Batch of 3 targets.
Target 1
Amino acid sequence: MHSDVESLLALQTEDQAISEMEARLAALEPRLREMDLAHAAAVEALDRARHAVEAEEGGHRELQTRIAQHKALHERNIAQLDSVRRMKEATAAMSQVEQARRILAEEEGALQGISRRLTELRGTVETQERELAELDATHGTERATIDEARAVVDGQLAERRATRVGSAARVERILLQKYDRIRSVRRDGAIFPLRGPSCGHCDTSVPMQRRNVMAAKGSIEVCETCGVLLYAGT
Ligand SMILES: [Zn+2]
């Protein structure tokens, strides 16, 4: 086999190995992104739950303050009631006391409602904190495995690329430029043997005269249909 063909085939073997390793690295990416998204979603859910707790706690504090104020007012009303002598004033004071008692009862009920919601919301926060920790622990293990796999492929890839430099140096410069140009658009290969009378890539038949030259001189031709490099196989 002609040395140009041999060195190009060796180069193509390197490139195919490199492509395959790059594909293996790229295949790891979706899972990493998926884990990032799952983590972000869990963090966001936890944030929302914590904010909900804070909002309820704020409402709880406000209502407690209001109840304390109303209680004090109520006690003053009751004290006043004792000092009222006239009937008309007594009726007014009684109704004031009654109204304040009703408001207080409503507020106490609302406070209980908030307390119940707080208990639920704090439970949600705890659950989500636990889930996030579990998720991160699981992901941590998986990421370590992926990192290991990636380190192995990275190492092999570095070796392969170094070998590729040597293989490329053995190809004649103009031919190498042609090869690289074809390879940049055709990931499935840039140089193919003739298959019978036809291009080994697209199956278009190659004129006999050109085939004869290729066989005699070991020259490399470009397929006029698909643009790959062609050589006469053994
Ligand atoms: Zn072709």
Target 2
Amino acid sequence: MVIGTSYFSDFLNSVLEASKVIYEAVSEDLLIHIYSHLDADGIAAGGIIGKALQRLDARFRIRITQWVDDKLIDEIIREKPPIVIFTDLGTDYASLLSKKVSDIKIIVLDHHQIGCTPQSFLCVNPHIYGIDGAKDISGSGVAYFVAKALDISNVDLAPIAVVGALGDLQDKYDQRMLGGLNQKIVEDAINAGLLTVEKDLIFFGRETRPIHKALAATTSPFIPGISGAEDKVLDLLASLGIPLKHDDKWRALRDLTEDEKKRLCSALADYLLSKGLHCEISNLIGHVYTLTREEPWTPLRDGREFSVLLNATGRMNKSGVGVAICMGDRGKALEEASKILEDYRKTINKYLDWVTEKPGRIQELEYIYVVYGGTYIDDKIIGAISSILSSNLPNPEKPLIACSDVKNEGIVKVSARTTDIMVNRGLNLGDIMQVAAEKCKGKGGGHNIAAGAQIPKEKIEEFINLVNELVRRKLAGEEIGG
Ligand SMILES: [Mn+2]
């Protein structure tokens, strides 16, 4: 989609309005409470606003939360902060909050789909201006525009917003490129000399892992027989005459010569073709976002790895470390984050092993797949499991609904994922989650391609069946109701 200039300027007007209210609050020395979402984009958004406020010598506090619920709203009402900023979450609950109290200033900086434009508080959301918040700008992108409006020196936070957008998988343009308003943020980062963008082999760990490790670890693209199989990768690299080491040092993907990259790429393409996986070939090459001021061999150097690191800090209950890194901390904070990332990877692998251990753990219904993690899979990690599994299902036309219990809360966290193919056919998981959750006394919503819900435990079966039915109805061109 080409963004009309008028849409953009309307969006920027609301950005400006938000920055004015924040600036006033800072001038009055008010304590600002920030609530942000527990994922890479949310942590980046919180860090961006935090850094902007720190530069203004403001008083503020950042909380990272998986979602906003009645409990949190009650807590806010008890604490009565003079001003609350929600980033990357909270529009619905902000409405609720604004109805319950009138003396708390509320600002929402978000990019999730919303039903209607809130009137009672300030809401900066691209959807209000006809801009696609699923792929054209993320929560941290919205936060970035506000930060930039607060002070132009905050353009140095543009790479963090790029990281947030990548974390939200917004690289949906040709060859995994960021587009829409994200493109403007990318340009800011490039112009500030903080980012380079190039087309290259896109394997994860291109900056931090020895080539064979990066190839074996890749799940996007997923290469059956190569992904997860280091010995096969070693054979392949040897047959292509690509040395693993230079002198005594491991080589990462970024160290390969153009010629080596070409050989590797065409060998992998041939291999995918032989397996009938034509689609995955286009995923071999993509836009790579490099944060040029970050040290080589750190997970901060590649935008996608950076986003995984942030996400890991959130999922492993250490989001403060992620926020600190977004605000510029390195040294000890980075050391700690790297450890957290390692633990996170181990945990994910443990869960994936569990899911694939027994065939029945991925259930196939008529229109969806279902994985029920019970208490085994941490509810903060079910989203990651859902994403990884969904790109490797036998039938890409069936969305995946993955669930796990939220301990001691009597609710089930649901994480739904589908593919571009289905989005192009009109499937919108955000709508489906919302409609189905409401019918089951839960809460749901999100993006067309990735969405979630929280459902009372006793209603989960009913919910799953309803989602299955709603997907059927949607694909048959029927109304799904509201
Ligand atoms: Mn987001």
Target 3
Amino acid sequence: MKTSTDVIVVGAGNAALSAAIAAQEQGAQVTVLERAPESESGGNSRYAAGAFRFIFNDAQDIINLVPDLTTDEIQKTDFGSYSAQRYFDDLYQVTRYRTDPDLCEVLVSQSHDTMKWLRGKGVRFTPIWGRSAIKRDGRFIFTGELTLDAWGGGEGLIAAEKKAALQSGVNILYETGAMDLLSDGNRIIGVRTQGPQGTQEIHAKSVVLACGGFEANTEWRTRYLGPGWELAKVRGSRFNNGDGIRMALDLGAMPTGHWSWCHSVCWDNHAPPTGDLSVGDAFQKFSYPYSVMINSTGRRFVDEGMDMRIKTYSKMGRIILSQPDQFAWQIFDSKVVPLLRDEYRIKRVTKVTAATLEELASKLDGVDAQSFLDEIKSFNAAVDTTTPFDPQVKDGRGTKGLSVPKSNWAQTIDQGPFEAYQVGCGITFTFGGLAISPATSQVLDTANKPIEGLYAAGEMVGGLFYFGYPGGSGLMAGSVFGRNAGLHAAQSAIA
Ligand SMILES: Cc1cc2nc3c(=O)[nH]c(=O)nc-3n(C[C@H](O)[C@H](O)[C@H](O)COP(=O)(O)OP(=O)(O)OC[C@H]3O[C@@H](n4cnc5c(N)ncnc54)[C@H](O)[C@@H]3O)c2cc1C
């Protein structure tokens, strides 16, 4: 095995492969270190649905990114637009104005160009007609926020990026985890690895850390997110244990961001402890705005219809984890069952059906049955049946007089057969991480000075997401900052 190269990239997810491709593009010799075996490589990016959030002006911008769209597809779709101002507003709103403005500026302003760059490297995109568009009078109408998925989702994205990296000459070492950074006292000079050959040192002029957050590390989750988080299920890779963050902090890097927060969703309560690529993201259960959710006491505990799903889904896991017994049942009346997303129709699902509410109450494992029946009765009496139900917009059809209101999409639960799905908390990724220089992705030390030779990108960077996260910005941030990290790491290495 070679023991020196120009640039080492740690990780083989979207941020890492973006960095590797960009570094190789500059003429640097690049080695990617991936802790997972090849069959499980690709990190959380491989589990992702594949949505990218980026700015664009009009349909022509989308057509340029998806040149294989047919005339019919173009004619029946209103792609809308997504301005930089809206992207900023969305980021600021969901992060409660905590997001780092300089990181935001880079993410937003480089998002479109990075999409074009990815497309140029062979990543194909497809409009998210099924999950993101509203259908009206036979036309698909996008709001602009989430318009394109990588073709083939996260699997397709990673396959395309890996192909581009290998074709350009990047060397990928699987089952080779980075353990420590090597420093000569002035700059980073390489990485100590653990792999099939045991412990080794690989020297490099620059190192890009892109090896994820700490969501798969139960001890760190409990330490930083708080008691109970060791019980969350990991939606994606089992390999993201905070190694990159730890290595950099050991060398004086500055931690930043929302360390006690993360992205977490409604996830099948009996899903395995970490992600399963054969199921992917289908353990998620995202039709909760049309449900009532009850906990083990039989009571509702959250406004299921507080906002559009894309604005609320990433905090639902946390809310469920804080319930007694850490689970909830999503209850659907037959009026809304046809609206359930595809993920409700998989084989590995914790589901019960019943013809009557009494039968349902007896089947809801772990729930106080009488209290559940009382709760549904009070809920049904509070539903505003005068406002029309419209699942495609915030319809304002809410409840009146409940201590836990439902603000939109309220439907009485009285028409069987009923379906119920048991969900727990699925953690997606953590928000705390390393401080980087926004323009170059260079890791900053505790004096706010760049650490020579060290760059970071992706989930392990802190400061961008607080409290919430606008869907599709995880992959976009990984590609924008990964590309920048690779570019600057290579330029510094071959200067
Ligand atoms: C189910 C699911 C669905 C999602 N859907 C979307 C979506 O549609 N749109 C979106 O924007 N985001 C989505 N996300 C979030 C998105 O996947 C992440 O934000 C993004 O993939 C993070 O990319 P990354 O490259 O930073 O990390 P990852 O893709 O997780 O890559 C980290 C890599 O580092 C490797 N690694 C870890 N430790 C070491 C070590 N010590 N040495 C070497 N390698 C190491 C891992 O094996 C892995 O390959 C989703 C996430 C999940 C789990």
